[in-house]
Amino acid sequence: MTLQQLKYVIKAVEYGSITEAAKQLYITQPSLSSAVKELENELGFEIFSRSTTGITLTVDGAEFLSYARQVVEQAELLEQRYMGKKPSRQLCSVSTQHYAFSVNAFVELVKESNAEEYEFILRETRTHDIIQDVSNMRSEIGILYLSRFNEKVISKLLKENRLEFHPLFEAVPHVFVSASNPLSAKKAVTLEDLEEFPCLSFEQGEFNSFYFSEEILSTIYHKKSIHVSDRATLFNLLIGLNGYTICTGVLSSDLNGDNIVSVPLVTASDEKMRVGWIVNSKAVLSSAAERYIEHLKKLILDYGFDVIP
User: Fold this and answer.
1) Distance CA 2, CA 243 (A)
2) Other CB atoms within 10 Å distance of the CB of residue 180
3) Which residues pair with 165 in a beta bridge?
4) Residues contacting 25, CB < 8 A, separation 6+
5) Residue 33 pLDDT > 60
6) What pLDDT, in 10s, does the model give residues 249-286?
7) Which tens digit of pLDDT belongs to each residue from 60-71?
C-alpha cells in the first residue's frame, strides 16, 4: 500500500469516476484502474462497486476512505513541518436542502480557513441526491429535515445507505413572504390566509414524492402551486408574484436582505421540522467538516433556536 494509491482512491471518490479522476491526475485511466485494483487485491476487498454509470463505495470502501483521508492529511502535515512543503488545498464538501443558514455556515467556514488554496463544494440539491452524495462520500455532510410524516421513509433510506442522522434544532412551520406582501405585517397566518397566494416549493425530480419534499405539510392541496429548482428563483418569485413557501422560519438578512419576511404558520397539525446533518456511519469527519458543524450550531443559537445536544 502506497501513499499515492490512497490519493488515487480519494480523487476517484471526489469525482465519482475513475476516468474523470485520471484526467484530473494527468494519468491514463488504465493506470489509475490498475493502481486501485492492486490496492484492492492487497486489502482483500473491493473499495468500489463499478457500473456503467460510474463507481460507488462499498461498505468496506467507505471505512477505508476515512482512514485513507486521515493518513494523507497527516503525511501532508509532516511534509509541511519538516520539508517546507506548502499546505495542500483545503477540501470540504456539503450537500444540503435549500437553507440560508447552511450557506451562512459555509461562508464562515471559508472565511476562517485562511488557506492559500482551497476547494470547498456546497451543493444545494434535492433530498434524494443529498442522501446519495453522503452515501457515496462525494459529500462529507448532508443537511435535511425529518418530521413525523416523512421520518419512517427517510430513516429507512438512511439506514439502507448506512447513514446516521444527527439533529441540530427543531422548528414549527413558518412561511416566507415578500416584505411587500399584505401578510407580512401579521403576527401569524393560517392556511386560509394563504389560499389566494401562489405556493412555492422545490421540485424533487424523479423522486417528487411527498416524503422527499423540503416543505413540511407537503400533502396539503394548494390552488396555485409553482415548483422551482433553486433558492434564488424561489425568492424572486416570492417578491414578483407575492408567493409564499412553508419553511423553518430561519432567515438570514445578511445574505437575503430585508425583502423576505418570516411569519409563523398556525395549523391544526402539531407537525415540526427536526433539522439535522447526516454522515456516513463509517466516516471520520475532516477538521473542516467538524468546523462547519460548529458554525451551524453557533448560527442556530444566534437565530434564537435551541441546539439539540
Assistant:
1) 56
2) 11
3) 278
4) 8, 11, 32
5) yes
6) 887 766 556 789 999 999 888 899 999 999 988 787 88
7) 888 888 888 888
Within a domain: 137: no
Query: Does some domain include residue 164?
Result: no
C-alpha grid cell for residue 303?
437565530
Three cell numbers written together for 154: 427517510
The mean pLDDT value of the chain amounts to: 88
Please report whether residue 95 resides in a domain: no
Cell numbers linked to 297: 450550531
Domain boundaries, position 17: 1-85
Which of 101, 103, 98, 100 is closest to 120 using CA atoms?
103
Task: Please say whether the beta carbons of 117 and 186 come within 8 A.
Answer: no
**Domain count of the chain?**
2
The answer to whether position 31 is within a domain reads yes
**CA-closest candidate to residue 119, choices 89, 159, 153:** 89
CATH of the domain at 226: 3.40.190.10
Q: 17 with 9: CB under 8 angstroms?
A: no
Note the pLDDT tens digit of each residue in 197-248: 999 999 998 887 889 999 999 888 899 999 999 988 999 999 999 999 999 9
DSSP collapsed to 3 states, the chain: CCHHHHHHHHHHHHHCCHHHHHHHHCCCHHHHHHHHHHHHHHHCCCCEEEECCEEEECHHHHHHHHHHHHHHHHHHHHHHHHHCCCCCCEEEEEEECCCHHHHHHHHHHHHHHCCCCEEEEEEECCHHHHHHHHHCCCCCEEEEEECCCCHHHHHHHHHHCCEEEEEEEEECCEEEEECCCHHHHCCCEEHHHHCCCCEEEECCHHHCCHHHCCCCCCCCCCCCEEEECCHHHHHHHHHHCCCEEEECCCCCHHHHCCCEEEEEEECCCCCCEEEEEEEECCCCCCHHHHHHHHHHHHHHHHCCCCCCC
Cell for 107?
461562508
* CATH code assigned at 22: 1.10.10.10
